[in-house]
Amino acid sequence: MISQETIEQMMQSLKEMKAAKEQEIEEQRVKWLGKKGEITRLFEEFRTVSPELKKEYGQKLNALKVAAQQRIDAMREELSQIIEATKPASDLTMPGDVMELGSRHPISITREEIISIFRKFGYSVAEGPEIEDDWHVFSALNFPPEHPARDMQDTFFVSPGGDNPILLRTHTSSVQVRTMERSDLPIRVICPGRVFRNEAISARAHCIFHQVEGLYIDKNVSFADLKQAILLFAREMFGPDTQIRMRPSYFPFTEPSAEVDVSCNICHGKGCNICKGTGWLEILGCGMVDPNVLRASGIDPEVYSGFAFGMGIERIAMLKWQVKDLRHYFENDLRFLREFETVV
Ligand code: DAH
């Protein structure tokens, strides 16, 4: 029967209530507050309480119900804190986060390969500034004053005026000049670097690209030495069966000048769409250093001679890996870059 005492006893047992598991808490909730729970039962009995006691019992019963709900909530809270606190700091069975490892860019891979081939032949590496003057990019290399390569359309000028305009180098041949100016003879260097030309970006042209220049100056250097150096390079780079052919060409800084093709390593001369059916792929320009160029840097052409060559790193990389669009090198699309992850 509902009474002061029962309510107080129940209040007391609520305070002492304990549960170690979620299931036990739920059992307690059903026991007190469920449809057939003890507090629910008291509310039913409450209907029979005499009118003068209704107010007092009503308040007590409500307080009891609120206390029961609070105690159950508090037990839930305590339990979840205990679970949280006793959980291991991390689940050691979880799979680890994938650590994205970077890999070398195909242009870097190709540059390093070119350098390492020429290192074996006794060449050292020389570098020069990307922001250059007209003297080192054009004049000292025997470009006539009206030569179209100096034109605004080709060259990015930094400060166009004066006798010796400042510009972004359009080729790494400028490093030849700097090396000749400052080095003792003989000279045997390769000069890798970035070059800039005011060109519209397309599958075959870009305004920024990379070149490697080579220069060898000594007494009695001949065209035969040049041919041999290029042949050895081509075979190291594209495989031991590679053939080369030289076609006469013109550069202001070399005389005679040639362009070099390698035999197509895809169709082996049969003709494919990479070599456009010719069986040959152009890889570089070269020649014997023009006496005017030697003289401009204070080297006596009567005593010394030399050869030079220049190649585009993008082009070599395109031929090596059959990359059809130059823009891939500059867009940093991971799908492209990941293709080179396994190249060592
Ligand atoms: N500088 C030339 C270019 O940018 C490439 C080149 C051709 C370099 C012949 C040379 C050379 O040293 O002898 O297209």
Describe this structure in words.
With about 350 residues, the chain is α+β, with helices and mostly antiparallel strands. A hairpin with a 6-residue loop joins strand 3 and strand 4 (about 165-170). It starts with a helix and ends in a 7-residue tail after the last helix. It has 12 helices and 10 strands. Helix 2 (about 20-35) packs antiparallel against helix 4, helix 3 packs antiparallel against helix 4 (about 50-85) and helix 5 packs across helix 10. The chain has 2 domains: about 5-85; about 105-340, BirA Bifunctional Protein, domain 2, CATH 3.30.930. The model has no long low-confidence stretch (mean pLDDT about 90). Strands 1-5-6-10-9-8-7 form a 7-stranded mixed β-sheet, with helices on both faces. The protein is rod-shaped and about 130 Å long. The protein binds 3,4-dihydroxyphenylalanine. 3,4-dihydroxyphenylalanine binds next to strand 9 and strand 10. 3,4-dihydroxyphenylalanine binds near residues 171 and 309.
